[in-house]
Amino acid sequence: MGLARYLGRKLVWTIIVFFVALLLNFLLPRLIPGNPVDVIVGTLARGGGASGADLEKIHAHYMVEFGLDKPLWQQFFIYCNNVLHGNLGTSFSQYPASVNSLIGQALPWSLALMIPAVLIGWIVGNILGAVAAYRGGWVDRGGFVGSLFLSSIPPFALGIILLFLIAVKMQILPIGGAYSFGLTPELTPAFFGDAITYWWLPFWSVVLVFFGGQAVGMRSMAIYELGSDYVNYNRGLGVRESYTVSYIFRNAMLPQITGLALAIAGIIAGSLITELVFSYPGLGSLLFAAIGSSDYPVIQAITLLITIAVVLANFAVDVLTGFIDPRIRASQTGER
Amino acid sequence: MATLVTAENIRGVYYTGARDVVAVNDVTITINEGEVLGLAGESGSGKTTLGSIISLIAKPPLHVEHGTLAIDDKVQQLGEYDKIPRSWRGAVVSMLPQGAMNSISPTKRVRQLVYDVMRSHDRKISKDEAMDRARDRITMLGLPPRVLDAYPHQLSGGMKQRTVTIISTLLNPRLLVADEPTSALDVSSQKVLIEMLQDMLDKRIMAGVIFITHDLPVLRTVATHIAVMYQGRVVEKGPTDIIVNHPQHPYTQALMSSVLVPEPKYSKMRIEGMRDFNRDDFEAEAVIHA
Amino acid sequence: MKLRGMSPRFWVAVGIVGFVLIVGFIGPLVVSISPKDTIGGLYDAPHGFGNMILGTDNEGQSVIANLVYGTRTSLIVGFIAGVIGTFIGLLIGLVSGYRGGLTDDILSAIVNVGLAIPVIVVVILVSVSLPQRNLYTLALVIGFTAWFWLARAVRAQTTSVRTREHIDVAKLSGAGFWSILLRDILPYLLSYVVMAAILQISGAILFESTLSMLGLGPSNATSLGTMLYWAIAWGSIRTGAWWAFFPPTIMLTLIVFGLLLLQSSLNEVFNPRLRRGRAARKKAVAEGQTGVEVDQPIDLGEPEVVGAAGLLETPVSTHEEIR
Fold first, then answer.
1. CB of A42 within 8 A of CB of A55?
2. Where are the alpha helices (DSSP H) in chain A?
3. CB atoms near residue C18 (< 10 Å)
4. Would you put residue B232 in left (φ > 0), alpha (ψ -120 to 50) or beta?
5. What one-character-per-residue DSSP string does A58-77 give?
6. CA nearest B166 in A: which residue?
7. What's the Rg (C-alpha) of chain A?
8. DSSP string, A200-249
9. Which of residues 87-126 of C touch A (CB under 8 A)?
10. What distances in angstroms separate CA B81 from CA B26, B42, B124, C255, one per listed residue?
11. What interhelical angle do A137-152 and A99-135 show, nearest 10?
């Protein structure tokens, strides 16, 4: 019963947060003084690629799409309505390409990078951190400093270093992009093999940094737990070490899972920037280009996606914690 | 009365960075079957340290320089270079730690700990068998079987203490070393726990108890014999009645007269007790009553 | 806190941070030219010991000049944003934790929403919308969006200090709201605040460089992030012009690593249970066991998940354990 109420509250909370984020996502770009459409069309006109009649059409299109002739709150409803229908608008700079199509092309690459990185980094990082804490001695000391260093490097910095050393100097792996020139993406093993060589370096850049952070955190948690009363008590009763280790792991893992939720936003940001370094055609590169060309619909859509991902991830972690930590189910008061 | 335990020549030292603290200074004590030996003394007297050494859980920075533990016909060296078999812990000598609150991992149910304790000493035991045995023991000692399915935070302080007491004695250890088991409890819970301990002794679940406490009234209720420690040594040991009513060592006398729960005899002395004695007198020879 | 007893890790950290500070603040006094002066062609290789020691960048400007001024910019932005963030987080956490009641409910709700929304998103959106970006507005934006985790942590600790007796004494003697906060509660949090401030600053520096690499950096000043932005945009990595991207990368890594190392070594001082090594652990246990009075300010709970990846969002795991 406690669990159901807990989950219910978390769900309501998640919806509220999402709504606020949506509001911010809508509101902030509209801080720009003046009519953005005029600005955009003006830029297009100066670029000299469209005729007067075309510009009129574009102008009209965007006015309708954003509803800029209507009051602000109505615009917001239009926006929400669009979002809920999955319509993220039309790109400014790549008119008339729809934002959906642009994102659709970039998203798989970003996911291919981030999801394995998070999974592997978390699992391996935590295991190694726990082992280091348990063993102590040189394994711990060396591993700790190494992990600390790894975790402190900004992910893109590691990417730059790896790119330079391995791709440029040693020429083992390709320099940029997601697949060899001339190929088209398809779900064949051959394409896969080719794409993996491009994926390798960006993946390692993101994973190593994340892994370092997890190892450091888990080691600290495990050391903390090793000094606990229940560990001493277990020893006093002659309980086998391997059983006690599972107790320690269970307890040390809890803050790590919570920490994962908090770290997800950081991983996403780091991953996006790493894409820039490797010219990897994911959302990071898309965002970069969009910022450069003031393509607000695309920027907004990407920030919205990031927000959704983070909020969902937080919710997933809340659910997981609710199942793992029995104290959560018991306490009804406390942090939301 | 058969001798149950002899702890001989125990010397325990804390190696700290600055100086080495000798916490237990060549102590020898004997406990007979059916005895509850109360270990009394002020903070820093070494009673907890002695308890942890005897219950075989001493670890750095506490170093046991030498000592022997003889139980029944088994003899175990307690020095830090001597290997203490894991099988002794919990099964021959067992501990009941201070503050049961945190002694059970917060994320595991009681029955998990019970099972792990049992199968650590008997690989072949099945979960059902372990649960049955545990349930029998629990009901025998007056606790509801639902305790097994609970998480620690679902039990009250007194319940937790009694549960931990049962877990500590699941394997029927010969000796139970209880360190301040009643200190964190209210008076009625204290009574229930003490009764349970005596019940367990009657049922021969364990053969002897070392009861460490600074709470003298509790000691008077539960202990059959009392050993008074001061600065790492046993200064007086004997049957409860003699220690309480006819103490001979100057320190014991001071200790007994500092009890704040006034007995008719001491009500006039109250806190004055300690002031009347010179600390130097405490260096006097130890008195061991038969 | 004796300086003599500090671990080698602490001194290494101080060394690294000190080095970066020297580069950033003494550097501009030593380098004779401005980063905007054109002194060469596109990606001239380094030679000599003067202004060409690190060659030129994509606009023919001296890399070493850009590096020292860029370091200074990054440090300034990081420092300002870090201080702002620490100050706001501290203020809100203290008031929320001490006041309780409705004030606490409202503030906590705001904090929780703030924690749930990814900061990078807000910062990107705001930066994109700003008419012009100089480093002070950037610092403000970063500072104003980074304090949420600190507020939560400070609130938790304030609520536990609030129940201590000396607070009652202060109240009885008529001390005012702010007086109590500043003189009776804050001192207990000081060690934590110091570490949090370090994390805030390093996080802000990372934030600024992330924004700059996306093209949202300060438009009128060089920072380490903008150097990298141009380095990537002009393909210096591909062409092997290592002097254009390596120095800023190394400098950024040094700053962040140094600050995090500093924070981690300080953490071990304030949280003795984390200490490793025989000498350290004995000391911790001895303080506990032999009854030596150690004035423990506050149990800092369990230690933090530290890392550059985590810094961009929330550096501290604020999971509250019921121990």
1. no
2. 2-27, 36-47, 52-66, 72-84, 99-135, 137-152, 155-162, 189-226, 229-236, 241-277, 283-292, 296-324, 326-330
3. 11
4. left
5. HHHHHHHHHTTTS-HHHHHH
6. A237
7. 24
8. HHHHHHHHHHHHHHHHHHHHHHHHHHHTSHHHHHHHHTT--HHHHHHHHH
9. 108-109, 112-113, 115-122, 124-126
10. 18, 30, 31, 47
11. 160
- Say whether A282 sits in a helix, a strand or coil: coil
Instruction: State the pLDDT at residue B276.
Output: 52
Asked if C192 and C81 touch (Cβ cutoff 8 Å), the reply is no
| Alpha-carbon distance values, B185 to B103, B165, B211 (Å) | 15, 14, 15
Reduced to 3 states, what is the DSSP secondary structure of residue B46?
A: coil
Query: How many residues appear in chain C?
Result: 323
β partners of residue B208: B175
* List of chain C residues whose C-beta atoms are within 8 Å of the C-beta of residue A277: 232, 237
A248 near C CB under 8 A:
no
Q: What is the pTM of this model?
A: 0.71
What DSSP letter does each residue of C25-66 carry, written as one string? IIHHHHS-S-TT-B-SSTTPPP-SSSTTTT-B-TTSBBHHHH
Helices then strands, counting H and E runs in chain B, come out as 9, 11
d(CA B241, CA B243): 6
Q: Which residue has the tokens 């910062």?
A: C123
d(CA A62, CA A36): 10
**CA–CA dist A120, A142 (Å, integer):** 21
The Cβ of residue B19 has, within 10 Å, a number of other Cβ atoms equal to 10
Contacts of C149 in chain A (CB under 8 A): 262
Residue A270 to residue A252: CA distance in whole angstroms: 26
* Residues A223 and A173: beta-carbon distance below 8 Å: no
Radius of gyration of chain B (CA): 19
The pLDDT score that the predictor gives to residue C297 is 35
Q: Quote the ipTM score.
A: 0.84
The structure tokens 């906590």 sit at: C108
Cα B238 to Cα A108, B6, B47, B245, distances in angstroms? 80, 15, 16, 11
Residue holding tokens 């062609």? Answer: C41
CA angle C170, C173, C177 (to 5 degrees): 55
Nearest to C14, CA basis, from C315, C272, C261: C261
Of C146 and C271, the structure prediction assigns the larger pLDDT to: C146
DSSP C303: P
Strands B233-239 and B225-230: antiparallel
pLDDT, one tens digit per residue, over C111-157 is 888 888 888 888 888 877 776 778 888 899 889 988 888 898 888 88
- Per DSSP, the residues of C99-159 read H-HHHHHHHHHHHHHHHHS-HHHHHHHHHHH-SS--HHHHHHHHHHHS-HHHHHHHHHHHH
* Triad C128, C132, C134: Cα angle to 5°: 105
Secondary structure of residue A297 in the 3-state scheme = helix
Whether the ω angle into residue C131 lies within 30 degrees of 0, i.e. cis, is no
CB of C275 less than 8 A from some CB of B: no
Residue among A310, A274, A256, A249 nearest A178 (CA): A274
Please check whether residue B214 is in contact with residue B40, taking contact to mean a CB–CB distance below 8 angstroms: yes
Query: How big is the B-C interface in CB pairs under 8 Å?
Result: 30
Verify whether the Cβ–Cβ distance B57 to A232 is below 8 Å.
Answer: yes
Q: Token pair for residue A24?
A: 């911010």
Query: Dmax over Cα atoms in chain C, in whole Å?
Result: 73
Average pLDDT, chain A: 78
pLDDT in tens, A248-278: 888 888 888 878 877 887 888 888 888 888 8
CB nearest to A243's CB, from B56, B91, B120: B120
